[in-house]
Amino acid sequence: MSTRPQVLLVSLGGTIAGVPDERGRNAPAKTAADLLSSTPGAEDLAEVRVADVRQMPSRAISPPDMHALAREIREGVREGCEGVVVTHGTDTMEETAYALALMLDIGVPVALTGAMRPGHVPGSDGPANLLAALRVAATREAAALGPVVVMHDEVHAARWVTKAHTSRVAAFASPSFGPVGTVLEGRVRLHVDSVRSEFLGVPDELSGRVELVWVSAGADGALVDATAALADGLVIAGTGGGHVPPAMAESLQKAVEGGLPVVLASRCAGGPVLEETYGGVGSESHLRSIGLVPAGTLGPLKARLRLMVALAVGEDPVEAFSE
Ligand code: DAS
Question: Which residues line ligand 1 (CB under 6 A)?
């Protein structure tokens, strides 16, 4: 009997699955089985079962795709898989990782990985990343970290990870915190025992419309007004400690009074939304007083997914964001 853990390898496309077109431009085409067969040593680490869920660049991945992926993973675990690797484009990998953290409470390691360099160029990082991700997926203790991103021999928690560079092989970072583990000399070294669970629930579908408005100096309320007319929820990426220009504050008040859930995050790369440092129209204390829900330390992209899943499972947004 095999002593290797059973790992589910789910492919969604991205650069790691890319092949060049006639002009040398990369587009995803390889299957999970192709990726496995081009990664020497993979089969020694785990008994791998493959599934192809999507074949697309990650700019095209949507919340319903993330929901379908969560389902596929739950099914795989129900059927006995002890770890999961997801191959994914890097552009939106952090969003899919966090969406999985919101929708999965499965008790097995889940590692997302991809590649910054396509397979046909020298120094392609896909096979090394896939091998490292398989090592993490085969490490039982990694389950306590929730879904993680494994890139460039680093392990990053879903809540904190972000793609911080457009093209370097070391593109991923967890600002303010750093990686929660590394993969070195063929060994997974975890720096923490666990990370806080982000789980909210398992919705029947994830199709609600939650928009994100990024605040810039001098912005008025036009984008907020337009969003309020069509969205189920809104996240504001405010300046600094969670602020908006005075002209936008009035539109936000109208949106909240009209019943729209509005979450307040910061466009800064690190730090929480403040509580009572500043006063006056558009300050964090004013926006809280008119009913915006503070996102705490959660960044805008992930706050959007959290609000989306909260609405889909019928959780009160205030509860969903309480830290
Ligand atoms: N940035 C490319 C990748 O790493 C494209 C994508 O995200 O799909 O896969």
Answer: 14-15, 57-59, 89-91, 114
